[in-house]
Each structure stands twice: as C-alpha cells, then as structure tokens.
C-alpha cells in the first residue's frame, strides 16, 4: 500500500518538514546538521551546520524563502535558504528546545522547551511576544490550528492543552504598526487555556490538529493513541487506538484521506482508518526506532525519520490509468469507472466497481486495458495489485447509455490480464502461469516450458502479449506458444500502443523506449525525473508527461537507438504539478490531474511541427513553418544544420558569419564567397578555398587564394591546372617582390632551369648552380659558373668539376608534370561541370505538378546514367523563380527559358560577385611599397574576361541509341527506365488522368535504378553506365511484368487469409500502383495484367468495407453494420475468401434476427460447393443446409436494409453496385436507370465484357472504379492516383510500334 518515493541513510533524524510548493524536504539530524533535499530527483541541495548539538525541529515558512530551526543549543535560528545563511537568532529558552513552527498568516514563531514553557516570537521585529506557562514537565510539541485562533501543546505531564490566542492576535493587528506602544502591547495574559485533555497515563510525546475536522490526536509513552473531539467549550476523549508495543513518538493526520499515521519506538509505523478506527497497514524496521513524522500540506506525500535515516512515502498511487478510444476516455475515479467525452468535456459514470479493498483508500487500478479487437462493444480490464491481486472485466454496450447495466466479472489471484482477441483475455496467474479466459466463463491453462520468470503482462497485438521477465520484455505468440521477439528493457512499468498498433512505447521509471510492433528498438530516451504517462500522436510522435513537463518524442522507422535526444525530443510546456497525458489532437493536450479531473490545454506546436516535417523530409512544410516567424534563434538554425538542412536555415539567417558557415555546410559555394567578401577574415578565406577545391569551384578557389595573397598556393594551383601562362605571371610577381623562395618554386613548376641556376648563383649556392647546369647541359652557363669558381678558389676547381661530373651522370631532370592535351588554356581553371536541375528536389516537383509540368527529366540534362536521381533526392534548395511562374505560361513554359533563368541565378559566377584582383591584390601590394607589374594587370584582366565569357553548358545527352528509340514510345515505363520522368508523367496524364503522382515517386526511382547496368572498363578508369534492354535492343527491359505484379498480389491474398485487412489493403493498392509502370510483351500477358488490375479493385473495395466496419472511431448503427458486412460478400474474391465473408455476414444477420437475409447468405454459401470450397470438409454442406432450412422457417427480418436482398444476392461484383467513395449502394432512384456504360471490365475468366453503370455516375479512367456524381474531379480512392471522371486514352503497357 505504501509507495517509497525517496530514502536516505544518515544519523538519527529528529526533525522533518516539507516545503509547501517545491519538491523539497528539510531534515534535521542528531549531529547538528540540517539537510535540504529534492525528493523528486533524489539529490541533496544544501547543508546548514551552525547549530551546536542535536537539531530537534525545523519548519518552512509558507510564503517567504525562510525556514526556522531549534535544538539542544537553546537557540532558535531563522534562515534564508536562497542566501544560504542564518539571518538571526532568537534566544530566551533556558533548556533544550523541542519544537518550532511558523504561523500560517502572522509573523510569529511558536517554540516549546524542556524549561516547561511555550514561547511566541515575532520574527519580523525579533521579539518574544508571549510566554505560556502551565505545563509541569517538558513541553514536547506545539502547533497552531490551521483555521482557528488555537494552539495545541503536549507535555510529559500526561496532558494536552488547547490555548486560545484571540486576544493576542487582536492586539497584534491593532498595535503592530505603532512602534511607540510596542512595549505596552503584551501583558502576558492574552493567551488563555481553553481545553485540557487528560487521559494518558504517561507523558504525551506529540499532539496534532486535524486539518479540517474538530479532532485532536495524541501519542504517548503509554503506547496509546487517543482521539479527542473539540466542540465549542468542550473537549472530550473520542476513542483510543491500540497496537503499538512501545512509546508512541509521533502522530499525523493525512490532509486528504480519513487516515491517521503514527510511529513508535517499537520500530513500527502504522496507518489507521479513522472511520473504522482500525490499523490498515504496518511498516516495520528490524533495528531502527521511529522518531518523527511530517505530512505534506497539500499533496499525498508524508515522511518519517528513524535512527539511520528517513523515507518519503505515498499512501497509494495517484496515477489515473486510462484508455482513449476516439473522443472517449475511460478511467477510474473514486472506485467508479468513468467515461469522459473529450468533445464537450463531460463525464459519465458507467459502473460502481465491486472491489473489497480498504474503504478509506481510493484503490486505483494499476492498469486499465481496452479491448481494441471488438468494435461492437466497450470492454475494459482493470488490474489491481497489492492486497487485492485481482482483475475485473467490465463489459459495456457500444452506446454507453443508461438502459443497460455494465457486466462485471472478477478474476481472482491475478497478477494482470489483457485482451488477446474479441472475446478472449490472457491472465498471468499468481503462480506465474498464463491462462486463457473466454467471455463465456471457460478458461484454459497454457502449457509453456520456459526458463523465463514472468513478472508482468501487458497488452500487445491480436493473439500476442508482452511479458516482463527480469530485465527483458518478451513478445509471446499465444497460438505458437513461443517468444517471437524480445528486447532488453529493465524495470518496465507500462506500455502505450499507437492507434494502428504499429509502434509501442515501453515505460520504466525514468526511461522510454520506442519500438516497432515486433519489438525492434527505434530510440530510447532517459529523463532525470519520473515519467508519468503518454500517448501517440498518430504516427508522428509520442507525447508524454514527466513530474514537471509535457514533452514530445518523434517517431520514425528510420530512427536508431543512437539518435540524439535533443534532435528527436522537446518540451511543450512546464506544469505546476504532475499530470497524466491521455490524448493529443491538433495541438490540444488532454490530461488527467492528480485529483482525477480531465482537462485540456492548447500548446505551442511550432517546434514539434518543424521537427515532424523535417523527420518526414517535407521541406515545403518546413519553410512555411519558419516563415510564420514563431520560431527563431540560434537553436533552430543549429537544429536545421544538424538535420542536413543548412540551405533552409540560410534563407532565414542574417548574420554574415553564420550565413558563411551555413553556406559551406550546404555546399553553396557562391553564397559562401559573397559572405566571405563581406567578412574579410583570413580564416574565412582559408575554409572557402579548401571547400572550393573539394567541390570543383576553381574560380572561387583562385579568388580566395588571391584575397589571402597566398602566392605559393596560387602557383601550385595554376601548375595543377596546367595554366602555364598564369604561372609565368606568378613568376614575374615573385621577381618583382624579390621573393626568392617563390621564384625558386615557380621555376621548378615551370621547368625553367635557367632561372633556377641564376637564382642559385645570386644566392651564392655555386655548387648547386654548377650541378644543375651540368645535369641539364646548359653549355652557355657552365663556363660562367666555372669562371666564378676559379675566381673564388683556384685550388678547388678541378676537385669541384670532377665531383659534379660524377653526380651529373646519375642525375635526373626535375621537371613538372604537364597535362597531356589542353585545347584551350582558359578551360584549365573553369569550374567542374555542375548539372543544372529545373527543380531542386523530387518533393517540390511532385507538389507543383498541378501548376508546372516538371517531374525531373534525367535525359534533359544529359544525365542518362541516372546520377542525378541521388542528387535530386538529397539536394534541398527552394526555387525562388517558381512564384513568378503562374497560369498556363508557367505550367507549360519553355524548358530552355527556365534553364536560362537558372543559369543567370546564384548557381553561376558573375563578374560583380568576384574579388577584383586589380583592387584587392595589386592595391595591397602597392601599400607594401611594391611596384605594380603589368603582367599582373594582364593576369587580372584575363581572369575577369574569362568569367564574363564563361557560361556553363550542361553535359550533352548520352549517345546511347536506346534514348532515341524509345522517344516515341507510348509505354510510360519505357520513359521512366531511361530517366525521362517528365515524358512519363505527361503520358500518364493523357492515358489514365494522373492527378496525384506522389505515390509513384518511389516506383519511378525503383524502375529507373533497376533498369541500369554498370560495365567495367580499364583499370583506374570509370565504369560505363548503360541500360538493360530487350533482345532486339529496341526497348528497355520491363522491370515490372505480370509475374512481378502477381507476387505482390499474392502477398495481399495471403494477408486476407490471415485476417490482416490493413496489410492486405496496402498490398493490393501497391499492386495497382505498380501496374501503372507494367510492361507486357504479348497480348495474352497484357490481358492477364488488366485482369489482375480488376481483381485488385474488387479486393480493395472489400478491404475498405471491412475496415470501415471495424473502425473504432466511427459509431455505426446495427443497420449500418449489417449493410457493410453484407456488401463485402458481393465483392468478387477467391471462393475461400468469399466463403469467409458470407459466413461472417450470415452469423451477424442471425444474431440481429434478420433471418431472411441470413437465408439468402446461407444459400450463397451452398452455391460455393461447386467451386470446391467444401472438398476438405464435405460434412459442412449438411450443416449449412440445416442453417438454411432453419432461417427459412423463421422467415422474418427484424432490421430493414437499404437494398433489396433478392437483387443483392444475384450481384457478382461490388464495383458498379457500390459507390467506391462512400462505400454505400447507389441510391434507389438510380436502380431503374442503368444504362450501357461504354467501358470494358474483365471477368474472372479474363475476357473483356461490357459493364452496366448508373446514369450520373463517374468512373476512374485507370481502375474502372465507379463513383457517385459527388466524387467527380476528386482523386480516386481505389488507386490514389487518378482524377475521377477524367477523359483518358487508357493505359498502354504493350509497345505496338511498327519496326
């Protein structure tokens, strides 16, 4: 029952006090130390050690940053805990001080002492205002009444006194502001004894007031606790509580519950029920005596001190476990199951729970599980631990009205229970075994030999449970009797599932782990405080609450356990007290507070929306969020940079240094250069030059070196580029500056041996000069050098000559490498080719398809290898020109005009963007008193002229003949294979009325990347990229053919058999969307693919109908439920699936007493006999014939359906009878207006046949799905691609061009 929240080990604890608002507790020790703890996080905040000897009492002021303390040094100290020092001392007692307390309103302190007196002090003027005498032994305790003008004291004289200080208070309020009458205010008779409570046989150690009732509790050395009643002028003994075996040290009333807590020197602490006057709980310490108690004034916390430390407890959990289903929230409050309507915030009690726990306690369940597997009712399981150890199953109807009483069923000796199916629950018994319980009362024990020790059970997906075992969490499959997945997560306390059960959050005391439904860890977050509750926001994120905050955590299958916490989590807001988050919808947080009240609050979600958009790479949304201006600061910029979106941050950053850093991070060298020119710092140009060389921006690197005056780097740069004319000019500059090192290096790079020899001669390096000249056989310079040697030392000339000749024979020419071929030297310092794209990324292209005919054409820029695809998906830059392209001209403008516009933009260098060499470089040389060199000016002019003439021309298109051969193909897949996405999109608009190309993005990339082949060439040479093609070489190989589609179709077929309708719907839609890029090689294969498309349409309709029926967020009536289950039976499916649909519909109709409808369905089941459905169990035929006869005998329908069941039973397929948008039959007014539709559908045999449609209806030009007139112009809900009712040519998947 008790929950230990905090515990410390220390010397004997004599005094305790909770702070009224902060999570702090003061602890005074027998060794004279006072400690201040934060019991929420379990850390010590401060120590105070001015007292000499034991400190017996401490107390916080309610509003001021003060606390008071007293002890055996006979002094009362008042402290400021912000300044961490003692402010002043009150002296007057002549013996040990037992207790000190602040008054809750007045500036008073009350103290008691072994000198048998009680003193009142005014701590503002630091004076003693009253001395209360009357006790004849040590006064052990005293306190003010929380409301009345009363004081309660206890003494070892066996008495409890109640004092009235009304007159003292009146005088204080009357004369407090008059300093002249301060000495005359108090005469000593202002406080009088009102009651004397006698009844203890030994000394009374402690007495306390009840916070709201006229009760007094006292504990004494006679081992008894007495309750006293005060009323008017009387006070009498109410009752005596017996149970302690030694002196009672302290007693305290609980502020919220009818509970009294006591502790004793008998090493026990007891909890008493004030109504029943009985002990309901005992905590025993083997070797430690209890001395003191403290109750938090407003919350559920209390603390006790003993010989070797102190502990902070909660009497019971204040957590309100809950389950949210749509706009309804289920929770338990005061032993009543409640349902909160989150729409209008109204509470409706459902059931008074039949539990036998302690009547005085709230007895909250430790967990509440909702049955998500049954959409026809509201079923919950409540699990109780502790003394109860039971589970309660509560069954409620769907409407939650008062016409029916919820059914309650108890499961005794349960460690926990969860739902595993519609009418099945799994229970972890007290003996740690798993038992299956059915709603009809049967149960079955699961035989499972395991080495795991099961400690808890939690909800999971259908047919599975999560089990807690030591430090592991196990995913257990009930049917297979085995663990299918496990993850290490110690001390798990609860789990929260996403709405579609695709993700799960595992909770421990201070950690959250997000996993997939198969327990694959995605991320783990550790908090410094305790985590309270949480919920999923669809699939975007997880919202949770801690002790003092409401936070969020992003959810993505691309996350990893190493994800940075700051990048995937954040804070919505701080809370004054703990709350339990139960829902999050459109920026509104729903939560339950500790009083059990459901509230909602709107939070600022700008940062959350930004991170979600970045997590899903929705760049347009990111930009729109930033443009609102609700987010700003370096933290957002840094976050964008960490998420590889520095180019977006660049749009909103103003500081040049930050813009420079962001531009380098995003690879925008031109923008980086503009900001470097504005900053004009050496370090900036160094970074820019390095990045420019890495990315192939030669002209930026050249200008950076010029700005740095890094002539040696410029020389090497020109040498590597093969630009000898500029290198010669660098040599001229070095000579003009008389920089011998640069002259020597330039001569080496130029291969100019004569300049090198002359420099060596000038530098008195005669030996090196002579060696160099002899090695290169410079016959005109050798005699001059020999003459110089002779002039210097005649004796050495012969020796010199001999040594040099010997070395010259072994020497090799030191000449630089030269480019093999340079057609035009101006090309040597040009930028590397950078492909210009009409759109910055695929997301922007898809979003703007309706207004611009651009979907990245790989061949338009010569990127036949598909290299641009990866750049396209990674590069993120906003196309600023798109806002100016409006109307028809923007939608169908000339691509070359757009390209020309891009070439004039920021991606290309212009003259006014560069650093003028003449002004920046030469001007600085003149400041250093170095004359201008005409060669340098020529170099500057040539660079600038080169930039003026330089216009980047994209690489020419590949010469692969396949590109030309498929240019006039009508098969969209051919154009996607070679990277011509734009033409493929144009064809799809004409053929199937494509209006939403987003789902095709990954399919386009898949087909294109799988259509290429890379052929190796010579060593160290790049590979040759080409395309896979047919045997005749005229068409690309079809990546998506009939077998490919059939494989996807079979996946959906298998999911239907398993009953996984969500997964089946995804598979069939995937098959339908892949069919858009299918390629057939023969007419027969074409017919098979079209037949497969028609089958997918029927299955998609069936899956959508069943999912709509099961949708727990939709409130469906019995009629709607029956109509939906019957509609599923007319969908053309495999006979085995048809049988399951008919069986389900027949059962529900029977339960609804629609016997005529059930008879028609039974007849349809019997008609399946010819298709081999009953071949494995022929006895079922007889059984269903009996059903049929029984239904016919009943011959009535309780519920009238909206369609004629006789006509309904004759329908062979849903498409044409049911509107594929609303999933309802077409109106009766149209039933008599069927007309020839003029389009072909494919029967189960694969042959095309004419279909009838209704007047006024419209159809999808690709899938053939028929809709009501209200859906005209909308996106088809079957394929998700095309415009309903659009005129189209029809999909072409077979190339019929003549050779």
TrEMBL record:
CDD domains xrefs: Coatomer_WDAD_alpha (cd22948), WD40 (cd00200)
Pfam family, one: B-prop_COPA_B_2nd
Bilayer topology term: Peripheral membrane protein
COPA/B second beta-propeller domain residues: 351-567
Presence of keyword Membrane: yes
GO biological process terms held by the UniProt record: endoplasmic reticulum to Golgi vesicle-mediated transport; intra-Golgi vesicle-mediated transport; intracellular protein transport; retrograde vesicle-mediated transport, Golgi to endoplasmic reticulum
Keyword Cytoplasm: yes
Residue spans of the WD repeats: 48-89, 90-131, 132-173, 197-231, 241-282
Molecular function GO labels: structural molecule activity
GO CC terms in record: COPI vesicle coat; Golgi membrane
Annotated Coatomer alpha subunit C-terminal domain residues: 877-1205, 1253-1294
Subcellular location: Cytoplasm; Golgi apparatus membrane
InterPro entries xrefs: Beta-prop_COPA/B_2nd, Coatomer_alpha_WD-assoc_reg, Coatomer_asu_C, Coatomer_complex_subunit, Haem_d1_sf, TPR_COPA_B, WD40/YVTN_repeat-like_dom_sf, WD40_PAC1
Protein name, per record: Beta'-coat protein
Function: The coatomer is a cytosolic protein complex that binds to dilysine motifs and reversibly associates with Golgi non-clathrin-coated vesicles, which further mediate biosynthetic protein transport from the ER, via the Golgi up to the trans Golgi network. Coatomer complex is required for budding from Golgi membranes, and is essential for the retrograde Golgi-to-ER transport of dilysine-tagged proteins.
Residues annotated as domain COPA/B TPR: 633-776
Protein keywords: Cytoplasm, ER-Golgi transport, Golgi apparatus, Membrane, Protein transport, Repeat, Transport, WD repeat
